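Lecture notes, unit on protein representations.

Consider one protein chain, 252 amino acids long.
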Amino acid sequence: MDAAAVRALLARVQAGATTVDDAARELQHMPFTDLGYARVDHHRALRQGFPEVVLGEAKTAQQIAGILGEIAAKGCNALATRVSPDKAAEVVELLPAARAVPAARAVLVEQVAWADRGRGVIVVVCAGTSDLPVVEEAVLTAQLMGNRVETITDVGVAGVHRLLAVRERLAAAEVVVVVAGMEGALASAVAGLVSRPVIAVPTSVGYGASFGGLAALLAMMSSCAAGVTVVNIDNGFGAAYAAALINRREGE
């Protein structure tokens, strides 16, 4: 349940179309539902503007399907991230309303029409093709949260002329999400070119001394370019969520 649903319910009560008792029954499960293995937070959309998102990595297919089904039953879109292909196929079998999004390693129940809630465009840019799974997670999350999203891929600093060729597209963004592994230098390069917030996502792509993304994480956190904020390694979801909050129009 989100703010719009609460306002609609109160309007029905005011108009006499719904009794106070019926409204109370509708609201009684609003805070959360206890499934035994999870307490599904139905208040999340009202507080933050988007329903709870399921981290599927350490959950069983049955648990993911159960939580997604509970969220969807309230009329919301429902998203699970970090879902392996085999597990995603099982979730879809258990919950036919769901569909897998393999490129983003996600499972989605989409039942609310997309509406533009942003002031401008979120641009998600990555250093190399190996970063694309994190990019796709970010793009899917930002789009579900009501944002126009553009992607720019394979413009890492090993060929910085590729980045300079898209400088105007970067400058036109409201928020830029930069996804990069190896030494993570792309975030500093982008932030030095634009006057918008840059959310940097280090990825676990790289050889041994990259330490599974730690080198990129530390480099991004140590950036001398102003306006760079860093999320956790491979956390495309978190970066997109933050970008969506920054981009959100007042009152949405």
